[in-house]
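Translate sequence into structure tokens.
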Amino acid sequence: MDFNEIIESIRTFKGVTRKHSIADVREKLKDIYNISGKVYLAFGDDAAAVDIGNDQLMLLATDGIWGSLMSVDPWWSGYCSVLVNVNDIAAMGGLPMGMTNVLSSSDSDISSQIMDGIKEGVKKFGVPMVGGHTHPDTPYNALDVAISGIVDKDAIIPSCGAKKDDNVIVAIDLDGQVYPGTDINWDTTSNKTPQYVQDQIKIMNTIGKKQLVHAGKDISNPGIVGTLGMLLEASNMGADIDMEKIPRADNIDWIQWFKMYPGSAFVLTAPEETTDEAIRLLNNSHINAECIGKVTDNHKLSMSYKNDKKTVFDFSSEIIMGFSEDK
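Result follows.
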């Protein structure tokens, strides 16, 4: 497969380009986001963090389900609304506590399928859905879920913490399959036990408590390289990575793989002295982890393949979300 084609497919992927709008929202709110004086992390991370005293932080996140997924499979949309929110808290090193939702649909059958999916997700991940709001008369179908979590202040894993010469770790559960009816949903949880899935969530809390990594994000809509790009942008850093070191499922080409939304997957940066332990813990939790490169301070994300090296994103002249993180 042509390397130039792979690079261009990452750069133009909708999962990456739709993140550009975050900068406009942040610009409107940047003067008031910390009006309480207690916000520890805000825009640019998987979850915001608010200081609640006792050396603990409350984590807050929300996700909306893509309309294209809703039209394919309402049940899977409901299930994924739990998965993506729980992963946001896990990526921060936190423990998820509870969720609420906004369900918009005038179709009772679709609403029922969505709620059945949410119910299965709650049973799988062990995080309660405690309430929400319904719009029963909308001309469209939509689902949005918010989640709260908790983390010790000295155990949080931010997006903005990457340091020069950190090792870049990509960790993905490869024991899965493309979910039927989708092209870019790598399902690693629906056929696993709740214990298996919840252990994968808790391992990030362990990694945070052991302070093994400087930065992390769960791999989501922007894909593997796009998510790493957001982490580097938040940290005001760059990286050099080797494409062939990235964990990949068999029989899936690179272009499709780089667009995949995995069920359990993270990008992390760690100093040399703790990298091996972080990788060991992830692998022991059935999340296939590899060191794929190094963090740099040149504000470019570059990727090598065989004897070729190309710039995927140059943050001195282009954006994914458009800012380093507010802290």
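Note: The mean pLDDT is 96.
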